[in-house]
Write a structure and sequence with these properties.
Elements: H1 8-16, H2 22-26, H3 37-53, H4 55-58, H5 68-73, H6 77-84, E1 91-94, H7 101-106, E2 112-116, H8 120-132, E3 138-141, H9 145-152, E4 158-161, E5 164-165, E6 179-180, H10 183-193, E7 196-201, H11 207-213, E8 217-225, E9 228-237, E10 245-251, E11 256-262, E12 278-282, H12 284-289, H13 292-299, E13 302-303, E14 311-313, E15 321-331, H14 334-340, E16 345-350, H15 357-364, E17 367-378, E18 384-391
Parallel strand pairs: 1-2, 1-4, 2-3, 4-7, 8-10, 16-17
Antiparallel strand pairs: 5-6, 7-9, 8-9, 10-11, 12-14, 12-15, 13-14, 15-18, 17-18
Length: about 400
């Protein structure tokens, strides 16, 4: 850890230049000739990234940041808070501690948290930051997490793991065995140290692929923030063999949309119909879950087409996603497009449609934005249609 960065003048300079153009700053003469100018610029970049994602760190004095990339890859405080709602007990060990965001929130629920980080420089930064944050129930260890587990010889209430993809796995199908640590390979050893394991993965991981590699999965949590899926959480309990629960969460500033279902349960196939009064578009967490029949059954909705994943009804209901009034149904052909949408302005979404949003805009000269929401999709008769809508929610 570069202690020189804690110089009050340097800290004031970092604070005053949040959001500044780093390329322009880099051309300036270093105002702190005894300090590493690149390191100062790196702090500005990383702290700028932390402003919205990590407000607790951003607002605390004398925080040291790792690289901007590390900040981009770490959990947000929003998702860390949700993870903490899953765990309970007296002790938890994080085998892939990183910048320690998740651990700060675990420490609000758990009496004793252990942060393992193989990179000694990052471990030192995290240990320093926890002191600035007045966190006293987190112990930092800098070593290989397998060695730490063997040395501590503790039975943990929870083990938390956020495996990272190996550099040589680029371009391959994302599998847990391609990550460090290799969770499938080490799972039996982990269960000797704890009966409960929480694994975080990127949303790129296919759920069925993850289930094929893991054992004793009780719940998969799909976490979206502002309708963008940020992470998958795999909750494993030793010897569990019941039905798997899927929990979807779309967290925004004003509310959290929830939808849960049982993966192995048999749901009735959602009936199909032509577009009715209202259009319902599931949020991104539900789209990732694949629970389309469960959703249709629970909310008593019809689908436009097997592969469109858009729902319709004559009644207005509260729904985990966007809701629209269908103002007009337009067949997708040259004449209708010229009459209703050519050279217009609209927000465009495609679902089960051969053309991309970009190609549609270019072909029909449609500007982005405005009050109209247009869904280019396919109906139950396999006809290409455009639904011109007004957004309600």
């Amino acid at each position: 850890m570069d202690a020189a960065l804690l110089n009050p003048e340097i800290q004031a300079f970092i604070k005053d230049n949040i959001g500044a153009n780093i390329a322009k700053l880099a051309l300036q003469k270093n105002p702190f000739p005894e300090s590493n100018w690149i390191a100062v610029l790196s702090q500005i970049e990383a702290k700028t990234k932390a402003k919205n994602k990590l407000p607790t760190w951003f607002e605390t004095k004398n925080i040291i940041y790792p690289s901007k990339i590390s900040i981009e890859q770490t959990s947000s405080e929003t998702t860390a808070s949700y993870k903490a709602s899953i765990v309970s007990g007296k002790c938890l060990i994080d085998l892939t501690g990183g910048f320690g965001v998740d651990d700060l929130y675990f420490a609000k629920k758990i009496e004793k948290v252990s942060h393992c980080e193989i990179n000694p420089a990052l471990s030192a930064i995290v240990q320093h930051n926890f002191k600035q944050l007045n966190i006293s129930n987190i112990t930092c260890y800098s070593a290989d997490s397998m060695d730490i587990l063997k040395t501590l010889k503790t039975t943990w209430d929870w083990i938390y793991i956020d495996p990272s993809r190996r550099n040589d796995s680029k371009g391959k199908v994302f599998m847990l065995k391609d990550c460090l640590p290799n969770v499938p390979e080490n799972l039996a050893f982990y269960f000797k140290n704890s009966n409960a394991i929480l694994i975080k993965t990127a949303p790129l991981l296919d759920i069925s692929a993850g289930l094929s590699e893991l054992q004793h999965v009780k719940t998969v949590h799909i976490i979206a923030v502002d309708n963008e899926v940020k992470e998958l959480l795999w909750e494993l309990h030793n010897s569990f063999s019941g039905n798997l629960s899927i929990k979807t969460r779309n967290i925004s500033k004003d509310k959290t949309e929830l939808f849960d279902f049982v993966l192995n349960e048999s749901y009735e196939i959602t009936p199909y119909s032509l577009p009715q009064t209202y259009l319902y578009e599931p949020n991104s967490a539900i789209m990732k879950s694949g629970g389309f029949d469960a959703l249709g059954t629970f909310y008593n909705l019809n689908k436009l087409h097997k592969h469109s994943h858009l729902y319709t009804a004559t009644k207005l209901i509260s729904f985990p996603g966007r809701v629209f009034v269908i103002e007009k149904i337009v067949p997708y052909n040259k004449m209708e497009m010229k009459n209703y949408l050519e050279k217009s302005q609209a927000n465009i979404t495609t679902r089960n449609f051969p053309d991309s949003v970009e190609s549609i805009r270019k072909k029909w000269k449609i500007k982005d934005g405005g009050k109209n929401y247009c869904f280019f999709t396919t109906d139950l008769n396999n006809h290409k249609i455009v639904l011109i809508c007004t957004k309600i929610i």
